[in-house]
Amino acid sequence: MNAPTRGTPLPTRAEACGVERATIRDFVELTLNPMSLAIIGHALDLGIIEALASGPRAPGSLAEAVGLAADSVSLEMTLELGAELGLFVRAGDGFGLGELSRLFLSRTSSLRLLGLVEHYRAYVPSASSLPEALRSTPRSRRTMWRQGAERAEHERYFAARQAYNESRRGYFSDTAYLLLRGHMGLSTAYALGSRRRACDVGAGPGAFACLLKKSFPAIDSIAVDVSFRFPEYRERSYAMAAAEGLEVSFRGDNALFDPLPAGIDLLTFNRLISGVPRDGADAWLSRAFDALEPGGVLAMVDMVMSDDPVHDRLVSLVVSQWMAKDRYVIAREPPTSADDDKHQWGWSRPWRATELRRRMEEHGFVDTFHAAADPPFTLVGGIKP
């Protein structure tokens, strides 16, 4: 199943923030379990979710709608097991959509997380590779996420990475509202709605910058990502913003080399710092501090440990899946060129929020804060005095 580019509008702030945290957690837990994720994926592949979108159906009617025999074991298994997971509800002799499917799996829902499902489905075949990963994974070589390499090397690396970045557009777009919820979870710490000019660094397709603008129209929203240097990628992001009637600036800068926009009072690192090695973090934090106006905020929503043990258990599962998938892919598709991203892969100890806060304070940030957000994300931030 490949989630298409989001055709439904980005959610409104009220829609995004109106979902119960426990409901999102229930769904994310299903996506992080290879068994339940396989059932979700098969239900999507069969077309069950869309067939039930208009209301409950008897098994025979549903089988006909999805092109299966009335006595299909595949359909029966998916419905019976999916019902116990909360994907479906029993309605007399038939089945209807459960809340999790209606909210997060229907293509017409503004809260759809099909991109999240697509992203983690890639981990299902690799789950059994974790034992080998635990035995043989080397330390990572994240040279493109710290200073030291030449600009030309960065340019070759990100050019080679474009196919992967494009393949993850659905994931980044569909999960943007989870990032917004993370930032709003402690919005009183930095008054998100009062920010004037915001810059999202490592913005991917720019969905978060668009959602921020949609949620807070007075904010001047800027998305910075190397991928915007590539015309097709940039044009698809422009089209997303245009479809929402939003004015968002897309800048194809490399944040380790190029100056960040002036006058910023909110700088966000979303899903960025988790990929930065220990010896690279100081450069990112220093550039963030220098770019911010006095009173400005650096806020990060990322897969880092929060010291909430229940939340961090899910972060640990995500990191474990990264490691298993790396070993699985490398064993089947060894790197064939010097610029292949797989040369960068390996173990990097997950960041802890408290560790990041200490680093920020060393760079001059004050009133640092953190809180567990919707899993697997944690909010970490601080203020430039």
List key phrases describing it.
385 residues, 19 helices, globular, 7-stranded mixed β-sheet, 46% helix, alpha/beta
Explain the overall architecture:
The longest helix has 24 residues, at 309-332. β3 (197-201), α15 and β4 form a beta-alpha-beta unit. It is built from 19 helices and nine strands. The strands form two sheets. A seven-stranded mixed beta sheet has the order 5-4-3-6-7-9-8, with helices on both faces. It has helices at residues 13-18, 21-31, 34-46, 48-51, 59-66, 73-85, 99-104, 114-121, 130-136, 151-160, 162-167, 169-174, 176-184, 187-190, 207-215, 231-244, 281-291, 309-332, 353-362, and strands at 88-91, 94-97, 197-201, 220-224, 249-251, 264-270, 292-302, 366-372, 378-383. The radius of gyration is 21 Å and the shape is globular. α3 (34-46) crosses α6 and α3 (34-46) packs across α8 (114-121). With 385 residues, the protein is an alpha/beta fold.
In short, what is this structure?
The chain has 385 residues and is an alpha/beta fold. The protein is built from 19 helices and nine strands. Helix 15 links the parallel strand 3 (197-201) and strand 4.
Topology:
Elements: H1 13-18, H2 21-31, H3 34-46, H4 48-51, H5 59-66, H6 73-85, E1 88-91, E2 94-97, H7 99-104, H8 114-121, H9 130-136, H10 151-160, H11 162-167, H12 169-174, H13 176-184, H14 187-190, E3 197-201, H15 207-215, E4 220-224, H16 231-244, E5 249-251, E6 264-270, H17 281-291, E7 292-302, H18 309-332, H19 353-362, E8 366-372, E9 378-383
Parallel strand pairs: 3-4, 3-6, 4-5, 6-7
Antiparallel strand pairs: 1-2, 7-9, 8-9
